[in-house]
Amino acid sequence: MINGILNAYEETRRQNEGDIFKVLKRAGIGLHIYLIFLLICGFTMYITLVMNQKKGFFCTLVALVIVSQIMDVLDRKRNQKKWNENIHKYHDKLDIVKEILSKPEFNMYEKNKLKQLICKYKVDIDNIKKENLDIKQNYNDFCGGYIVPVIAFGAGKLSQEITGEDLFAICVGVIALLVLIKVMIDNIWMMRIEIIEGNEIERKQDFMQKLQDLLDRDFPIEEKDLL
User: Fold this and answer.
1) Which residue from 87, 108, 138, 185 has the highest number of Cβ atoms inside 10 Å of its Cβ?
2) In angstroms, rounded to a whole number, what is the distance separating the alpha carbons of residues 93 and 87?
3) What are phi and psi of 25, to 5 degrees?
4) What is the mean pLDDT of the chain?
5) C-alpha distances out from residue 55 to 47, 60, 65, 202, Å
6) What is the pLDDT of residue 21?
7) Which is nearest to 214 in space by CA: 86, 113, 98, 73?
């Protein structure tokens, strides 16, 4: 039931918003320029690696990190200024949830049913998290037992053949790459639901929050309902 309701909501929202190209078209010129910048940086980094131009690679990497951070700040400021428009859009999404829940095949648009549905999502999310922890533990055991020793052995051999300057450059490159990955994930996060569906936990947490907001908006809040 809970997966069916979520799938119905996501499909209805996609039909209302259009495909990814229409969403990108509404996103504004700023995002378009940023995406083009990302493509150019990616291509430049690839070329500099192929041509073994370390300075060019690191300069491009630093520029990408700086611009990504600036874009993140500008996006937050833009959302703050457009708070009224964003609230109207969010209410439109809640109306879609209400429409889905009111369908005869679900018949869940009622206060106690909404509360029960929220509880089911919480239990389901907790179960998924537990499964993910088990998978992560198995992955960590495998890395600790096999991958890390191999990397350590290779690093030991490599350190005997490279100079101190090259070793420092490699360390800086690894750190910069990790920072870049984090920045990229943060920027993709703002489009996680609007353009590309997030992972299962993110989708269900997002939808569960909408159910709670719909409950608070459309039904009286009694003392026993307080969180």
Assistant:
1) 108
2) 10
3) -65, -35
4) 75
5) 12, 9, 15, 38
6) 55
7) 98
- Smallest CA-to-CA distance from 206 within 85, 97, 81, 83 is with 97
Positive or negative: CA dihedral 28, 42, 203, 212: negative
The length of the chain, given as a count of residues: 227
From the list 217, 204, 216, 212, the residue with the least C-alpha distance to 9 is 204
Look up residue 67 and give its DSSP letter. H
Distance, in Å, from the CA atom of 94 to the CA atom of 99, rounded to the nearest integer, reads 9
Per-residue pLDDT, 186? 55
pLDDT 10s digits, 133-144? 776 666 566 555
Pull the structure tokens for residue 110: 């009622």
**Structure tokens given for 97:** 């949830």
CA 89, 93, 95, 99 dihedral sign is: positive
pLDDT at 190: 47
Q: What sign does the dihedral 94-87-80-24 (CA atoms) show? A: positive
Strands (E), 79-215: none
Tell how many helices (H) and how many strands (E) occur in the chain: 9, 0
Mark residue 30 as left, alpha or beta (left: phi above 0; alpha: psi -120 to 50; beta: remaining): alpha
Q: Which amino acid is at 122?
A: K
**List of the chain residues with pLDDT < 50:** 189-197
**What is Dmax (Cα atoms) for the chain?**
72
